[in-house]
Amino acid sequence: MRALSRANGSSDAYSRSTLTLVSTYYQSLRIGSKLIMTDLKIIILHVRYNTAIPKVFININSISHQKGRNTLFRFFSRSLPGINHERDTRCKICGHLFRDPYSHLFTLCQDILDIEKTIISTVNKLSFIKIHRWSMDTLDISKYNRTERIFPNLIGIIAHQLWKIICHKLFNTDESKPEPKFEQKVIETELLNLIETEKFITLKKIKHDEAILKNTNQDLHKYKFNKAWQTLFQFK
Q1: CA torsion sign, 231 to 233 to 235 to 236?
Q2: What is the largest CA-CA distance in the chain?
Q3: Which residues have C-beta within 8 Å of that of residue 148, sequence separation ≥ 6?
Q4: What is the pTM of this model?
């Protein structure tokens, strides 16, 4: 149903509303200490990590993986729940002092450093864009072309999986719940399922053009899909 609704144009409405939200939010500081504080955090994000604001949000909006898109949006808007108040304190996971909970928990915490090689090998196996380290610079998808679909979706999927691990370590009180792990196979399955969905949407567009518009543009649709999604599940 999600795929069909997107094929019928609901994604365009979502994109417009999200971009309007982003552009409106970053035009000026708002009245009210909470929103001003959030804006200041984002200004610091731009200065400290050279993140292109609001381009990073425009690129995030092009991510198809819903949970990955939402996690990255909250990450760069500094609005993930439960960690915003943590400043200049010791990490509850590894015990190290940190200033910024976002950069620490997602890239510098010892538990993340322990799986960094697995994260890097996962990215390098599934994407044409290769990385040599896992860092804030890697998470910053504003530096990449929006027409490239594999890499930003992959980063979103990885960020969401890391957030699940972080949440379990910080907030879980139910010892019966299994601790989530970072496994390359899980990330790969999420990505391949996403590509299958995108391929289905492309097929629906082709059928729509043929039935309604009397237009046989299937070669163009297939070319755009193959270019955006690299070599996985290529249209022939």
Answers
A1: positive
A2: 63
A3: 129, 228
A4: 0.78
